[in-house]
Write a structure and sequence with these properties.
The chain is of the alpha/beta class and about 325 residues long. It has helices spanning about 5-20, 65-75, 95-100, 115-125, 135-140, 160-170, 190-205, 215-220, 240-245, 255-265, 290-300, 315-325; strands at about 30-40, 40-50, 55-60, 80-85, 90, 100-105, 175-180, 205-210, 225-230, 230-240, 245-255, 270, 275-280, 300-310. The chain has 2 domains: about 30-240, P-loop containing nucleotide triphosphate hydrolases (Rossmann fold, 3-Layer(aba) Sandwich); about 245-310, YebC, transcriptional regulation domain (Alpha-Beta Plaits, 2-Layer Sandwich). The structure holds adenosine-5'-triphosphate and magnesium ion. Pfam families: ABC_tran.
Amino acid sequence: MSTDPTVLAEAAAPDAERLLADLPPTPAVWCSGLRKRYRKQTAVDDVSFTVGRGEVLGLLGPNGAGKTSVIKILLGLVRPDAGEVLLLGRPGTDPQARARVGYLPELFRYQPWLTAAEVLALHVRLAGAAVPAREQRESLALVGLTDRAGDRVGGFSKGMQQRLGLAVALVARPELVLLDEPTSALDPIGRADVRDLLLSLKERRVAVLLNSHLIGEVERVCDRVVILDKGRVAASGTLAELLGQRELRLRLDEVSAEAEARLAAAGQLTHSGDSYTVTLPADQSATMVPDLVAELVRLGVRVHAVEPARISLEERLLDILRAGTGGDR
Ligand SMILES: Nc1ncnc2c1ncn2[C@@H]1O[C@H](COP(=O)(O)OP(=O)(O)OP(=O)(O)O)[C@@H](O)[C@H]1O
Ligand SMILES: [Mg+2]
């Protein structure tokens, strides 16, 4: 083997490339130790989290919790007092990273003298992307504004402006989208459309950071959730981790000792009168409930009702916020 350094470097280069290609992709968002104070008001206090590629992360918390401040810090619109941000593996300030990020602001306003199609074309130019006119029209169709493409934005309703904002956030084929309350102005159909849109982004492996007070929506589309309270991360995790165990509520009679033992084997059992509650472990199998019911019937139990229940994200969020910051991490 040669010891000539140039020969060694040449031999190593393809290996290094292969090594790099084999590395897992960097997260879409990585932030660590973010802090921001406005005079006496602490807006963001030691916030760290990641959003994986293709992941939909929900940022939840009460008014003033610091959600918008975090999003603005990630985008470089607000300078943090401390902390670091990487977007798509590059420093948050790097224009190359920013060009691949879409953003819908909380308070959106677009040039009232431009038409919807012109607003989109302007943002495509600002992103430095080459998006053909046909694709720009498709973005407007995606948010239900095809018929209004040639109308001036000044005459748009609030919900129509928010739809345009979504098209702006998505038109330049971003790999990461930050949406600050994307459905705040939308009617129920518009909200359902946004839900479908988020699911289609997930399918295309576009990462989404979403902030919304409509917790049911977050529960339907998000893979993971970060809950902020008074600027701090009060809890974070997957929905399964945060919502934990499921309950099975049953109304039964003629329960023998053997049947009761079978119920207790399924999970923690409590009962009063003919009402039985089994707290099931999070990793239960899909056939666990029908199997249990079939066996109870075989053991001679009369089954009047079987109701699976799960604590909702809303209940869990309220528990966490009432317990206070830091009480339940
Ligand atoms: N430009 C600013 N100047 C002074 N204080 C600010 C500024 N921006 C945010 N704050 C303060 O920082 C805190 C967090 O605000 P932020 O807008 O991030 O909350 P949020 O979680 O997005 O709330 P909401 O759900 O109401 O949108 C609040 O106390 C707010 O008053
Ligand atoms: Mg906000």
